[in-house]
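### Sample
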Amino acid sequence: MDIPLKIPKIRPPWRRDEDPRCTISKGSSLASQTLLMSIYTETLYKNSTTNIPEFVLEGFTGIPDKYYGLVGTFFFFIYLMLASGNVFILVFVACEKSLQKPTYIIFCNLAISDLGFGTTTLPGIIAKYWMSEIISFNGCFTQMYFVHYFGTCTSFLMALMALDRFVAICNPLRYPVLITHTTIAILCSVLWIVSLLILGVITAHIISVPYCGPNIIRHCYCDHVSIRNLACADITAIKVTSTAIAMTVLWGPLFYIIFSYVAIIISVMKISNKDGRYKAFLTCTPQLFIICLYYLPRSFVYIALNVGFRFETNLYTAMVMTYSLFPALINPLIYCFRTKEIKDTLMKKLKQRQVRVNRKSILT
């Protein structure tokens, strides 16, 4: 569906007697007239500081309008599963005192980040297919801020998970001293605040440039790359700054994670007891799986884009949606089925509930 773009009235950067349109005479050739009008339009855009009032989310192209309701319903159920899974983890850990340990505090922070990311993106995607694909100027930048904010928090939380496992396996005797509730609470607070400041700088840079031309965002939600491509000014400095920050946020934690798990593997291989080695690997499996889900697809896409590879629009949108939402959707299942303490506690609760139901049925 084509959305007409209303271009606001803009004052030209030249005097009336210098207007290129006034130089077009009746005897001018068609080529000359076309060239002068293109110069007029291009100069008008480049010298404008007036922002367009709204953006259009293009999302997946080629989907007939009659299927919009079905697509919106699909994303609605994804959001329900994502929200219910992460809320369940938060409530379950909060209510079960035996799980209120530093490791599970990190899990809860990750669940909050996943829930925040899903709530930032999915309702807007659902609204695009159920109601309108138009998003306001300020609404788009607000969404962009929180999309990258929660993504940054998740990256730092992955590094914190690796730190937790590194100390637990490589320095088990010092673990109760180094990794305490207070330590984890402080580290989590710091990473949330640092992420807040980082995204504040990025958003202030990108919102300061004018947006006066095309307003179609080739994605299902607003992100930094999609928005900056629509700017009507030289954004070289912004690209360099944002890319440097993004690579630091992504690769910095990843390098530390790789270092941590190499040290963990070396330490585990030194354990002479076979059962001890198995138990040590088992405690790392959930975190390692979550980390791989988060970093591997992102790394592939970022490397491909930086070497000059260009993805087809629908393929790129599908890949970004998958590596952004799939970890947030699957993480609660990993917690429940791959973390022994959570799985055992959950099974114990279910058995106790079944016993109570059986007793009640016998009495009645």
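Residues 209 and 231 are 7 Å apart (CA to CA). This sample (Olfactory receptor) is used throughout the tutorial notebook.
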